[in-house]
Amino acid sequence: MNSTNRTVVVTGIGATTPLGGDSASTWEGLMAGRSGVKPLEGERFAELPVRIAALAAVDPGEVLPRPLARKLDRSAQFALIAAREAWADAGFTGKAGEDEKIRPERLGSVIASGIGGVITLLDQYDVLKEKGVRRVSPHTVPMLMPNGPAANVGLEVNAQAGVHTPVSACASGAEAIGYAVEMIRTGRADVVLAGGTEAAIHPLPIAAFANMMAMSKNNEEPEKASRPYDTGRDGFVLGEGAGVVVLESAEHAAKRGAKVYCEVLGQGLSADAHHIAQPEPTGRGIAAAMQNLLEQTDLKPSEVVHLNAHATSTPQGDVAELKALRKVLGDDLDHVAISATKSMTGHLLGGAGGIETVATVLALHHRMAPPTINVDNLDEAVEADIVRDEPRPLPEGSIAAINNSFGFGGHNVVLAFRSV
Fold first, then answer.
1. Which of 6, 275, 361, 391 is deepest in the core (most CB within 10 A)?
2. Is 347 a catalytic site residue?
3. Structure confidence by residue, pLDDT tens digits, 389-415
4. Which of 164, 202, 310, 365 is catalytic?
């Protein structure tokens, strides 16, 4: 590691997910092994081959004032709600500058989305066709921009060190957190709000994913549809929401007396160069990202006791990830408690890395690994320790955890955290 790199810690968390409207209720849902997947009601979903999704437990319209909500795409609404919780949880009481604990030019915002304001785009196109040009909202462009969530969070807290939006499909949220770590390590910022958001539960994206054969069609039993590692898994379930963390240099956090959840060790990155949508079957690219993580940090495989897997519940992807883990970690994989929280939240696409980072941070903080539900018949190709049905205590002492996120296009991002 470069000796000039600064230690980065997590000082705040926020989330709004299919399991709860904040991080506490989301964690409670994870610990209870509760599924957030439900039937999709309404005529516009009736003819779809997939009629289930993991809708947010609390609609953002119930939280945000109507004048503000109508100017934000649903993805930005989720991001703002999660960011506000994380900001307050970190102990900040106002915008940078107003709160003297952080200067605006030392604060950043990195919030990712894999698809951006797709609901705004599609709904406003319907308005154009059905009601004419003059009825199209003047807020449409700022609402549909993929950088809209990051920009609105940046405006909320007066972030002037930089506002960024990495877009790498389902790895976007994790890549945002990795980017934020580098902002702090290189000295560009002291504090960064980082995470991912997504809101794409709309007939067109669902029809498109379904026609790719990527989604589960288990409409009869929604709660059992997302089933990573099970022999009957048949695709992911679409979810929505956001997860945001406050990252901070350890020195800055100590000066203001902030509580610290854990240390962020760093990230590992790679690309498959295999296929635009299919996972590389041997896990070669994932293994490269894991190896990159080990080379860029002081993490030792023997330290890793927990992993929040990408595990979307697809036949190829779940096994490829485990092959990669075995290749890099070897026998050390045997003492890693693996959780696949998408079994409960569904797959939030670009928001997945955000909420799963929140889950990983809380797993270290509470020293409990969330369960993986719906694994009735474990695939015999799974040669790893899957935490099934019930949460599991994690060891005492200094321990580390990993969060994996992979995306269409062959993007691989691996994040690592250590207890404090």
1. 361
2. yes
3. 999 999 999 999 999 999 999 999 999
4. 310
